[in-house]
Amino acid sequence: MSTATLPAGDAYTMELRRRYDAPVDDVWNVITDPERLGRWLKPVTGDLRLGGSFELDGGEHGEILRCDPPRLLRVSWLFGPGADEWPGTSEVEVRLSPGPAGDTEFELVHAAAVGEPMFPTYGPGAGGVGWDLHLLALARFLTDGESLDHDEFRTLPEGREIARRSAAAWGEAHLAAGGDPDHVAAAVEATTAFYAPEGSGR
């Protein structure tokens, strides 16, 4: 977790890095082709070109700010009650580069304004846990072409354990970035309860 600046002001960033055993062109296609994107993230609709807008099935929406195939994609990212009243508060950028063995180095940076309404309750885990779960789904899709039902996965012991570990790890990152220990502890608890609520396991 680090800091950045958005149109709305100072922001914190969540940074995730993965290596996928697939060529850059294939990974680019998986993150930009609507049919394939819907198999690991969520179904998407909209005007999917530079300057156009998009909306995911879960309500996340925004504009396509930069598109440099097959290396860089940046979008604005709005989600949650009143999100449209907070323009410029959140952006997601994906950077791809070829790895040494024909694989792909994948980096996702999600910058969110410090004043956006979800941070006080959930901290960086608000988006961080969700991205961890989605990038796990991306890895599985690239490996075997299978889709992951996120709602179902979160009810399974494996999914709940991954969510709990992810929430704790984002809490550690928040502390390392100077977060108040009491706020961090409360945010980790709230994030864990959201992604792995008690009684949801099988």
TrEMBL record:
InterPro entries: ASHA1/2-like_C (IPR013538), START-like_dom_sf (IPR023393). Pfam families: AHSA1. It comes from the Bacteria. Residues 21-140 form the Activator of Hsp90 ATPase homologue 1/2-like C-terminal domain. Belongs to the AHA1 family. This is Activator of Hsp90 ATPase homologue 1/2-like C-terminal domain-containing protein. It comes from Amycolatopsis thailandensis.
